[in-house]
Amino acid sequence: MGSSELHQNDANCVWVDGPIIVGAGPSGLATSACLTQHGVPSLILEKSDYLASLWQLRTYDRLKLHLPKQFCELPLLGFPHNFPKYPNKDQFISYLESYAGHFSIQPRFNQAVQSADYDHILGFWRVKTQDSEYISRWLIAATGENAEPVIPDIPGINKFNGSVVHTSSYKSGSEFKNQRVLVIGCGNSGMEVSLDLCRYNAIPHMVVRNTVHVLPREMFGFSTFGIAMALIKWFPLWLVDKFLLLVANFILGNTDQLGLRRPKTGPIELKNVTGKTPVLDVGALSQIKSGEIKVMEGVKEITGNGAKFMDGQEKEIDSIILATGYKSNVPTWLKGCDFFNKDGMPKTPFPNGWKAEKGLYTVGFTRRGLLGTASDAVKIARDIAQQWRPNNSCSNSHVILLKET
């Protein structure tokens, strides 16, 4: 029952009985499904004409989930049993599509939210798209942490003669065969793109601007993340971090010697405090050790045909790939609300960042991936369901009221 009962007041003003959810990615779908379970209708507004448009349009071909599938399930419906331990991009998208079908979720596509304001006089949210205004008691921001690419300002990049792409536009190393490619960023995307480039005989130069934790994806045949989650139930965080680093050094060796300096804070603590995810190695490290992927210090400036680095080196480069991550876009459309900081993240830290005031909720901003999304969605649906029951008979009087405004 994903598309809620709607009351059309005039050509472009729509009263929504249940919550308005902005974004039809995993966060929006999970919340809609949980609301459905409580008998609460909802309406998802999605700017593109796809479910999970970031996954469909902005991910590279060889992407797989970094965590085992049991840590990436949405509430109420797991992955098919025949899916591998680490589903690939297409499998994950098909899971989301069947999830939407299972719960009869039908987003309104091509509805880019331009502004969402709280009307203090009426006590409703007014959500404007390019052609309609939607009105509801509740608003759920589900656009997530990765709505827009981060494009850093690098000196001289406008002079560069080759191509410059963000990883959101990168599909495969086949487009960069035999090229010298500067990959700026060494997170999971930077590492995997560099590895992918090696498969097409390109020569990746990966820029490591900051410290980074690299952990093996698996330890002793088990998911590193799974081991960490199990240990945290029994041991203090610092001890779990110590154990992870001990085993990582045993399996991977000393990454500092490869130019990948570890932060002083342990990997799980750093993730909790800053949201910075450790890199789970899927093969890039062995290519760094063999010299196939060249690790470079920070870029000083880009020239017409290459780059100058902080350590004085200069290299000729054919293409640049920005593996510089993503950011929230909430500040561009949510108006008059100080619940989010300037980076578009809730000011209230996890696990309490899911609920603001005046019927505003957020899902998918926990910096804890799909596990955090699932946890938020369940809490939000339960909270709204408690308000819904006493108030679900008064929508018609609101419609009349709105016609007059």
Automatic annotation (TrEMBL):
Pathway: Plant hormone metabolism; auxin biosynthesis. The keyword Ribonucleoprotein does not apply. PANTHER family: FLAVIN-BINDING MONOOXYGENASE-LIKE PROTEIN (AFU_ORTHOLOGUE AFUA_4G09220), FLAVIN-CONTAINING MONOOXYGENASE. The keyword Oxidoreductase applies. It comes from the Eukaryota. This is Flavin-containing monooxygenase. It is an enzyme of class 1 (oxidoreductase). One of its GO terms (cellular component) is endoplasmic reticulum membrane. InterPro entries: Auxin_biosynth/cation_transpt, FAD/NAD-bd_sf, Flavin_mOase-like. Belongs to the FMO family. Keywords: Auxin biosynthesis, FAD, Flavoprotein, Monooxygenase, NADP, Oxidoreductase. GO terms for biological process: auxin biosynthetic process.
